[in-house]
Specification:
The active site is at residue 324. The protein is α/β, with parallel strands linked by helices. The protein is built from nine helices and 17 strands. Helix 2 (77-93) packs across helix 3.
Length: 378
Amino acid sequence: MGQPYALQLAQKQRDVAGTLDTHVAADPWLEPVPSPESGFRNKAKLVVGGTKVAPTVGILDADGHGTDLRHCGLYEAGLDRAVAALPDLLAGAGLTPYDVPSRQGELKHVLLTHSPDDAILARVVLRSPGQRRRVGDLVEAWRRRPDLPRLQVASINLQPAHAAVLEGRREEVLTPDTTLPMRLGEVTLHLGTRSFFQTNTTVASALYRQVAAWVDELDPGSVWDLYCGVGGFAVHLAAPGRQVTGVEVSAEAVRSAGRSAEGLGPAAEGLRFVTDDATAYALGSARQERPDLVIVNPPRRGLGARLPEWLETSGIPHVVYSSCAAATLSQDLERMPSYRVTRARLFDMFPQTRHHEVAVVLSRHAGGSLGPEAAALP
């Protein structure tokens, strides 16, 4: 921060390209996709501190006391309004913040997600269920505020442990709606309370469009989308005559992905979602017809050892890899020497930081030179 944005973006491009340099076929890089410099974040993960009558929302300081961040410049406009109003709403509901040093109190976190249609998914993390009525009061007070984004989904999450853990296993949805629609152009994804979605809606939309364009150029008859989450890539790739299988270990995310597919019409006929571990699904595919193209979007730690080794021996001509850590992408490519990067683009999902998102097309080659499959990309 403090460095001009154009220089930030250029430095990220150099760093990521340098990390992947030994794995590219030629110069595969398109221009990086920039982000708004501020007001881009669709999520707020807020630690609640302070007191019952004067709560803070933000982070904790070194002594475990609340530091207020309600006017952070990262939030989208609607989310900014919601965060600014939240302390007054919490105080009005009579919720007591959890005090880390004394281990007293109930309210630990509030987790907000904002949609392009100015709606909110709000998760209230409590130590115990005794404050359920007060959370209900909070929901009703929010809904009486026409100046705030619409509260479409609200839930209580229980996290009883005194530990630096954001959420617990038990969750109760308080609203008739259980998913937050995230409209991305002609596609609408549905986010459940535990669903993963990129923090930057503008750049995420560009990422999905770019990958869909690359895949359409290659025109595969069948695609696996591994680590598919709520179906972001899979739904964007659905097309008449194409078989697309999304694989995700979270059953809730798979249910949300199914809802995301509902509005696609005939394009959804070849689209299906499976609840399974990505590696287990791929390694168990010996009895199945293997796809023409695989998309992987793993967590920061990458694919691990077994999935890259399987891809290396699979004979699949193309892999699209979306990564939030070029270093682990490079490590995975070391286990996949038959592939080279033939298309690549940086997506500045996290401006004002050194973090990045990068998407690459990997094309199989033989004998150290690119085969005819790679030439299919203009």
